[in-house]
DNA sequence: GAGGCGTGGCG
DNA sequence: TCGCCAAGCCT
């Protein structure tokens, strides 16, 4: 409560600036004060965004929005899906590749799922790629236009609460409450929310709903995220540069990094297995496709044991794709979201036909396969340089 | 609703 | 080195 008083105080000190765009969302008893303070916050934040916003390949800058240039919902959607749990830097090159190959939703709908998976390889969370393609198919079939409401957007595959709100706000200028990890961190600090983040989601959402301005809601959403990404960072936040430092309870209290409060996490178990790199005389490598669902669903892999297998002679021979002179070629490690993996890599030369369910990938095709990073590590251990892009 | 689902960067 | 975590969604 004392934390909210901080905002109230700020609001009353500057009530004239707080007047724009806030009243309609007031709901609870103290929401009038909160929305007044939040209008003030939105105003300061937008002023900061005008000066310090990041230029991103999918973003329309405030000055261009002011000229009447509108964002392309397709590009907003594509970028938001790519950005789910993924850093901006990782997304940039993938975004450019995708809009180059598939400049609109009809083009993406006309592509094969296989080509989409190949283009997504390395970005992670591969169900996103499958949902992306399914969503493009749906939208194209319905005339090529994305729904312009949160509820309509949320019905599409791969679009949840966050992404629906982000598209509604950024592409369609709707006053949606866009709440992602950045926003949760910023709000946790603004109000020094001591409740663990996992239990504070609803409270944070309500606070954001009070803050969203009627004018420039899309810029407001992006400003909150830019602030979280560049100023209000998880560690060592740059509070001296923050446009909201005078409004921020955590800064005043002296320990912004303490927020958001999180619960201790479970340990990651270690799994082990073996991987088998068969190399033909012409450099082709034996691969297979994983099941459509589950871990690395629909992606391509090197033949492996199960990932709980003991590594000994008997297990290895039985699990190899064919009997042969399998020689140790090193060990690779990889950490997934919920477990760590160590794979012993074995290698052999062969000229046999591909076993059922397997295929040979020619040397110059390997870099274009839908190989997740863990599988590129396996192949690199056996054949250094094999997965790097080849000059034609 | 809790857990499955990738990857790379950073302090 | 290693834990944390980044514009979450789905079941």
TrEMBL record:
Catalytic activity as recorded in UniProt: Hydrolyzes free adenine bases from 7,8-dihydro-8-oxoguanine:adenine mismatched double-stranded DNA, leaving an apurinic site
Q: What's a Pfam family this protein contains?
A: HhH-GPD
Domain called HhH-GPD: residue spans: 82-230
Q: List the EC numbers from the record.
A: 3.2.2.31
Its function, per the record, reads: Adenine glycosylase active on G-A mispairs. MutY also corrects error-prone DNA synthesis past GO lesions which are due to the oxidatively damaged form of guanine: 7,8-dihydro-8-oxoguanine (8-oxo-dGTP).
The record, for InterPro entries, names: A/G_AdeGlyc_MutY (IPR005760), DNA_glycosylase (IPR011257), Endonuclease-III-like_CS2 (IPR004036), Endonuclease3_FeS-loop_motif (IPR003651), Endouclease-III_FeS-bd_BS (IPR004035), HhH-GPD_domain (IPR003265), HhH_base_excis_C (IPR023170), MIG/MutY (IPR044298)
Q: What is this protein called?
A: Adenine DNA glycosylase
Q: Where is the sequence biased in composition, kind Low complexity?
A: 9-35
The record's region (Disordered) falls at 1-38
Q: Which species does the entry assign this protein to?
A: Mesorhizobium metallidurans STM 2683
Q: Which CDD domains match?
A: ENDO3c, NUDIX_DNA_Glycosylase_C-MutY
Q: Where are the transmembrane segments?
A: none
Q: Which cofactor does it need?
A: [4Fe-4S] cluster
Q: Which UniProt keywords apply?
A: 4Fe-4S, DNA damage, DNA repair, Glycosidase, Hydrolase, Iron, Iron-sulfur, Metal-binding
Asked if Hydrolase is a keyword of the record, the answer is yes
